[in-house]
Amino acid sequence: MGTTIQSHVCGEWVSGTGAGQPLFNAINGSEIGSAGSDGIDFTEVLRFARQHGGPALRQMSFHQRAAMLKRLAQHLMEKKELFYTVSAVTGATRADGWVDIEGGIGTVFSYASIARRELPNERFLVEGAAERLSAKGGFIGRHILVPREGVSVHINAFNFPCWGMLEKIAPSLLAGVPAIVKPATVTSFLTEAMVREIVASGLLPPGALQLVCGGVGDLLSHLDEQDSVTFTGSASTGRRLRVHPDIVANSIPFNMEADSLNCCILGAGVDPGAPEFDLFVREVAREMSSKTGQKCTAIRRIIVPAGRVDAVVSALRARLETVTVGDPALEGVRMGPLVGNAQRSDVWEALRAISAGAEIVHGGKTDFEVQGADIAKGAFFPPTLLLCKQPFARREAHDIEAFGPVATVMPYADTEEAIALARLGKGSLAGSLVTADDAEAVQVILGTAAWHGRMLVLNRHCAKESTGHGSPLASLVHGGPGRAGGGEELGGVRAIKHYMQRTAIQGSPDTITAITREFNPGARQIDAGVHPFRRYFEDLQIGETLITHRRTVTEADIVNFGCVSGDHFYAHFDETAAKDSLFGKRVAHGYFVISAAAGMFVSPAPGPVLANYGLENLRFVEPVGIGDTIRARLTAKRKIAKDPRPGEQPNGVVAWDVEVSNQHDKPVAVYEILTLVAMRGEAEAK
Ligand code: NAP
Predict the structure, then answer these.
(1) Does 185 sit in the ligand 1 pocket, CB within 6 Å?
(2) 3-127+145-254: what CATH class?
């Protein structure tokens, strides 16, 4: 670790020209260096991202960006021990560091895989189905998403120097948007260490990621309408930044994740001795001590049935007794210091304010045992539990965030009261209910969901596999309403779309097909003179269509299909019951109709179609009766080229639009089938 923490801007590592802000070791308070951004020309930083990073990323497809991120995650994982060493200086234990470092790298892996699975191998995204906008179908609409042609600026909190950066840049880079990361200065040295490895890997194009350690100067004043900002930190800073004149004037998306007074509710019927009681106590104690309580999702309000207050307080006290505080490098130390002495003063002050309306029942004293470090020098804080006996009359615990190992127990009389207390947080990132009573879970979740970004229902059935109250996951939304900032992060593809512009496009089916590279209803159907299943991936054009021969459905078809499948449902076999049914007569099995369609459209001899691997969006639109005559139309709808895998013939996915119609040309079944189709190149080489 150098003494001057540098920024990486315009392709170079630079130091601020001023003295910078001093940085300290959280364990012993010694000065370890400084960070400052004076002298950085932020217009140049933005220009570099816009001129280099943006165009380079936008040239890549989603799959290419995903492959880049996967390689980056692999590279960072190889270097993880270096990050753990630096992380210890922030006061983090190995377990705390794991959440930040490997949790962050894991999020990049998850995003790379989400993009490979759920996004096309394209540079833009087509969303939803075609909208028919005219009576004759000659005018339709669709939505596309393209990368915003600007920069994403990420202003992060101090508590997750790695995860905080990675969970934001992964979706941004996948969307094709370069990122500028500004970590909280106090722990910026860990973010710097990670960005050094990212830069050294050479895996990202120049300008895709820039790092500013120190203040953001006048950066926000130079943002324009294509840029976006995410902010994670205290509500007071967030409120100030979100009304920055340039952010307002340019309608710049501003995603805010702020403080949150998250709750955990013990179910009304949970007795001491029940598995849920132990789960509750363990979860609360873990959330209080993990990262020394410096987690945006940490449990701050412990809502328990009035008759269980004493039992919960004594069980929590017993558990918190076992939390050894000290130098995280020492064996057996479970909780390190806060991030620094300024933070320690803030938490003492917040505790004093909360205790005006609640009594301290555990901890809360300045003299406590610290292992392997000097209590006077390091930013140590004892696990502290309060009890607020009148949580409707005294609002301190609902209003004040002590960003440390501090939480308050509060009683409730009935479930309605528990819900009302949860809502007094005025909007939270995460909440939990610990109960095995699903009726109670329904009532509590529906009563609190509008105030929460995520809710966990924990009980004996899911505890073993539960990811816990405090863990944001790549596939689930992270964020919360109201006080929590009103933002949304993560949530799978949702986060990638956040950096893209959704545009409705309208026009003729042919035009919309040309733009989306996807067949749309009403667009020109191409007869290439060859069965489409005999065409290699590269040759097949979107819109290539096969209209099959016809087939009249007989009673023998229904009886044979019923015997093969074992499906003797009355609508197919019981003349009398079928007459009284919705259909008024015996009808063919829907699955017979699609099987018969496959029989009509396949080209049976070996050829480029390697496999049929799925069917989507199936609807049986009209019944097919005995004597009806059906035929199928098969149209190449969408092509997704896959990256070749070693030992596998190069191929791609072709989605086919299928419509089975009757003798009146009315559709009876519509769906999409997915096939793997070989690429010609490799086949010829063989
Ligand atoms: P903070 O003081 O609000 O700082 C957050 C970030 O804003 C830092 O990078 C800070 O930079 C920057 N900043 C401060 N003033 C600024 C200004 N005028 N212009 C531009 N940037 C500015 O919060 P913190 O103390 O780092 O973090 C603790 C808080 O964050 C807690 O309240 C916690 O609940 C919240 N948090 C929320 C989430 C979530 O997901 N909801 C996650 C983590 C933390 P400097 O460090 O250089 O001042």
Answers:
(1) yes
(2) alpha beta
Helix orientation angle between 94-118 and 62-78, rounded to the nearest 10 degrees: 160
Q: Is residue 187 in contact with ligand 1, taking CB distance under 6 Å?
A: no
- Give the CA angle between residues 101, 453, 265 to the nearest 5°: 95
Q: Where does residue 81 rank: exposed (0-12), middle (13-18), buried (19+ CB within 10 A)?
A: exposed
Mean residue pLDDT across the chain: 95
Q: Which residues, in sequence order, are bridge partners of residue 434? A: 266, 458
324 lines ligand 1 (CB under 6 A): no
475 CA to centre of ligand 1 in angstroms: 24
Name the CATH architecture for the domain at 525-685. Roll (3.10)
Cα 355 to averaged position of ligand 1 atoms, centre (Å): 25
The Cα–Cα gap between 73 and 194 comes to 11
Mutate to test the pocket of ligand 1, among 40, 158, 213, 490 (most ligand atoms within 8 A of CB): 158
CA 485 / ligand 1 centre spacing (Å): 12
> Do the domains spanning 3-127+145-254 and 525-685 agree at the CATH topology level?
no
Going from the Cα of 198 to the center of ligand 1, the distance in angstroms, rounded, reads 23
Q: Which of 90, 234, 242, 346 to mutate to test the pocket of ligand 1 (most atoms within 8 A of CB)?
A: 234
Residue type, 169: I
Pick the range with the lowest mean pLDDT from 133-147, 287-301, 646-660, 672-686.
Answer: 672-686
Q: Give the number of the atom of ligand 1 that is nearest the alpha carbon of residue 236.
A: 3
In percent, how much of the chain has pLDDT > 90?
A: 95
Q: Is this model's pTM higher than 0.90 or not?
A: yes
Segment 250-275 shows an average pLDDT of: 95
How far apart, in whole angstroms, are the C-alpha atoms of residue 163 and residue 154? 12
List, in sequence order, every beta strand (DSSP E) within 15-136. 21-24, 31-35, 125-132
Q: Among all residues, which ones are annotated catalytic?
A: 257, 296
Residue 155 beta carbon below 6 angstroms from any ligand 1 atom: yes
Rounded average pLDDT over 379-396: 97
Q: Determine which residue's CA is closest to atom 11 belonging to ligand 1.
A: 184
Tokens of 467: 């990811």
Please name the residue whose Cα sits nearest to atom 23 of ligand 1: 233
pLDDT at 443 over 90: yes
Beta strands in 100-147 (DSSP E): 125-132, 140-147
C-beta of 215 in contact with ligand 1 (< 6 A): yes
Nearest CA to ligand 1 atom 9: 184
Distance from residue 155's CA to the centre of ligand 1 (Å) = 7
Radius of gyration of the chain (CA): 30
Whether domain 262-484 has CATH 3.40.50.1820: the reply is no
Q: How many CB atoms lie within 10 A of CB 320?
A: 22
**pLDDT recorded at residue 684:** 47
Give the H/E segment covering residue 668.
Answer: strand 667-678
Domain boundaries, the chain: 3-127+145-254, 262-484, 525-685
Q: Where are the alpha helices (DSSP H) in 296-449?
A: 309-321, 341-354, 396-399, 415-423, 438-448
Give every CB contact of residue 286 below 8 A, 6+ residues apart in sequence: 468, 470
Rounded to whole angstroms, how far apart are CA atoms 341 and 579? Answer: 81
- Give the model confidence (pLDDT) of 138-169 as tens digits: 999 999 999 999 999 999 999 999 999 999 99
Distances, alpha carbon 572 to alpha carbons 260, 591, 593, 618, 628, in Å: 58, 12, 13, 20, 14
Cα 360 to averaged position of ligand 1 atoms, centre (Å): 28
